[in-house]
């Protein structure tokens, strides 16, 4: 029976800043900007903004598909979560820094969600949940990857 050589897979970016920066901070910053600067923490205005249509597309069938602002924010968060999971495979040292910043970002999500009525909406909760998944997945992947290196 032949054995295949194990190859180490490393994802590298051109900038260590990208490796450390938590991408799920971007939807939070956007939400914060809109809720605080644009709508002045008015809960009703934030809810109206989230329910408003971001875009509409007419399908071949003639049906109109529209996405709300909330849908677009959550979809962007899901894409960024995927990239975050891929980033956790990289350098162990940078991963530890990234995980620490990700935990701090999660704490900010939780504090804003439970403290401010304008942030107590399902969209913000889903973003916080994505950040929690990122934290758990990041630590899990880092632990499993380090076990593979020691065997």
Polypeptide structure, described:
The protein is mainly alpha-helical. It has a domain at 70-150. It is 66% helix and 7% strand. Strands 1-2 form a two-stranded antiparallel sheet. The mean pLDDT is 88.
Radius of gyration: 19 Å
- The low-confidence parts are none
Major sheet summary line: 2 strands, antiparallel
Structural class: mainly alpha
Shape: globular
Topology as H/E string?
A: HHHEEHHH
Put simply, the count of helices is 6
Distance between the termini: 21 Å
Q: How many distinct beta strands?
A: 2
Biggest sheet: strands side by side, in what order?
Answer: 1-2
Q: Helicity, in percent?
A: 55-70%
Average pLDDT taken over every residue: 88
Content of β-strand: 5-15%
Itemize the secondary structure elements and their pairings.
Layout: H1 16-20, H2 25-38, H3 43-51, E1 53-58, E2 64-68, H4 69-87, H5 92-115, H6 122-150
Antiparallel strand pairs: 1-2
Helix pairs in contact: 4-6, 5-6
